[in-house]
Amino acid sequence: QVQLVESGGGLVQAGGSLRLSCATSGTIFSINDMAWYRQAPEKQREMVASITSSGSTNYAISVKGRFTISRDNAKNTVSLQMNSLKPEDTAVYYCYVYYRFRHYWGQGTQVTVSF
């Protein structure tokens, strides 16, 4: 069983930056894919960024060049550096892990970007 806990959300003005972190707990040996998703009000959850155990990354077009995902394999943590934030980035951000054929989600952290 894997537990995920996000931190780092908050309120920021447009153009500002935030850094999200996701800590894992449980008996974990090697996590395959880690990612960040987000869900805005009345919208479907969407993938923001993902990273494999070897460090290959993938980004949603809307955040490419502004967000950077990283991970620490020794600590089984994943982070999301968000720069040049826009009001349309406002959403609940979820940490996601795929481990041993199971999907795990964090509880979510709110990111609000004001005009």
Binned, the helix content reads under 10%
Number of helices: 0
Instruction: Name the quaternary structure.
Output: single chain
**Using DSSP, what is the number of strands?**
11
Explain this structure to me?
- The protein is mostly beta strands.
- Helices cover 0% and strands 57% of the residues.
- The strands form two sheets. Strands 2, 4, 5, 6, 9, 10 and 11 form a seven-stranded mixed sheet that branches.
- The termini are far apart.
In brief, what are we looking at here?
Helices cover 0% and strands 57% of the residues. By secondary structure, the chain is mainly beta. Strand 7 and strand 8 form a beta hairpin.
Give me some keywords for this one.
single chain; 115 residues; mainly beta; seven-stranded mixed sheet; four-stranded antiparallel sheet
Tell me the layout of helices and strands:
Elements: E1 2-7, E2 10-13, E3 18-26, E4 34-39, E5 46-51, E6 57-59, E7 67-72, E8 77-82, E9 91-99, E10 102-105, E11 109-114
Parallel strand pairs: 2-11
Antiparallel strand pairs: 1-3, 3-8, 4-5, 4-9, 5-6, 7-8, 9-10, 9-11
